[in-house]
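Troubleshooting log. The previous structure file for this entry was overwritten by mistake, so regenerating from the original sequence record. Sequence copied from the archived sheet and checked twice against the printout by T.R.
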Amino acid sequence: MSKSEVSEKKNTLVSMKDAFLKISPSKTVIKVGIKQKENLRDWLWNYPSKIGGFFQKTSPISFILVFLLFGAILFSVFRSETFANVISNEKNDVFVEGNIGAISSFNPLFSTQNPVDSDIHALVFEKFINISNDGKPEAGIATNWVVSSDGKTYDFTISLEHKWQDGEMLTMEDVIFTFEIAKELSSKLGYDTIGSSLQEVQILEMSEDKLRFNLPESNATFFEAISVYIVPQHKFEDVQLADIPFSSFAKYPLGSGPYEVYRSEPNVVYLKASRHFWVTPKIETFIYRLYSDYESLEAAFRNGILDAMGGIDSSNMSYTQEYRGYEIKEVTLNSRLRMIFFNTRKDKLEGKEIRQALSYLTNKEEIINQSNISGVIANGPIPSTSWAYDKDEISVYDYNPKKAAEILKNLGYEKNENTGYFEKEDKKILSFSLSYYENDINERIAQSLKELWKEEGVVLNLEPLSYKQITQEIVATRDFELLMFEVETTIDPDQYNLWHSLKSNYPDLNISGYSYERVDILLEDARRNNKLETRKSSYSLFQRYLTQDAPALFLYHPNYTYVVKESVDMADISEIFYPYERFDNIEYWSK
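Regenerated output below.
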């Protein structure tokens, strides 16, 4: 290659180099191994890894800051008026009450002394007529009434503006059906129903809104006999008579009252405000919770589950005093009387002297104190608050072991100085068996009585039983010596079902089997006469004879305790006769 060719080629290379140096690099060219400047789009696309990397480099401070920020946001939300209104409205729409007990049947055609059933009845149904605390009739479904001069005819006018909770109208047919089917269940199948005492009463429909009751004889207790809940006929149209006790109505009742059952479980009943009641209840949902014992009830209360709870064992509810924001209401239930029935059918208890001796040996005040019972001591069948009570005619068995020893000596019992027990000549110790429903309060009373009688020289064997055993094996068969049992009486002082000799067999309530002709006559006369003074005279003599014969050991009337949040606006319950009467104005309750 010549020098001129070499020189030309060199010049060409220099020119190409200059040309390349003058060319700007493309922005789209990917430069391998060279870190590029990242734009916003790329950063957003890769934000998870970017954030992760940031937290790795700045942890744990970054995590603490995030949680603080998140907590501040939640705090602001919870403090906001909107959130507070939502939560407040939800809580105000729901009321939760707790009680001790178990469900039996929600069908009000059947008589019951189960407070759980009675509570649900009061929430779901309306009565034909109501009875005031002084025993006078008040309007219910029936608004007006006229009684004949001889007290044998009662004419009622009913309201046709009541609706069942399914929207159907309540009619005269529903009212008559309630009474007639209850009578049939009693007469044909032997059930204890609201119609059991109306077997001889004729019921006639006079018009669309008027009916008449014709009585075979005057009865001063008739208003209480017809103060019953009315049921809808159309819910039983396809149910055979024998199947009524077991129909779905017993679990899902339908009434015309303020609340409707929409869900029912063994331990909880859910009710909602009826849209067909004459006024819409302020509380939308009523949750009625049941507990098997006071320990479970206490746990629910302490966990803040309950707005209210009730019971007759205030000693097991004393912990509520530890909490602010609750009101504790207490009222003596003169409708309830706890007694120890002596079975007068047994040879050992047939004579009144042995029953009197046992009464003198019983220190009621000490039993109540030892058992930590809240109640008022009873000395007879009629409460001291009743117009029929006569303290001058009652035989009061104040604790008097000396008097008891005298009576027992006359019966052939002497106290053995070595054993400390009353014995007969054949060394047979004076002893009895006490049957009772096994629960905490009964167990405390029974144990206290056992220890006190042991100190006095009497052996008491305890027989705690289940509810089924008590009702089916003891009360139904009358197979017992001593039975501790609590009965519920009426506002009217009538004691016919408890002590008349014709009421000695199941399902009637003369559990002792007591029989005295003069007492029968007095109870009958007090029922037949409408004059207050005449009735009062009959009941005075009745109390004299009955307490002298001592067919039962009258213990006490229990106090009912109701613990409720102070925020709940409800009526005063200091004058109620039955616990379920706390719901008399439930439609106006609010939280």
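The chain has 17 helices and 20 strands. Archived copy saved in two places this time.
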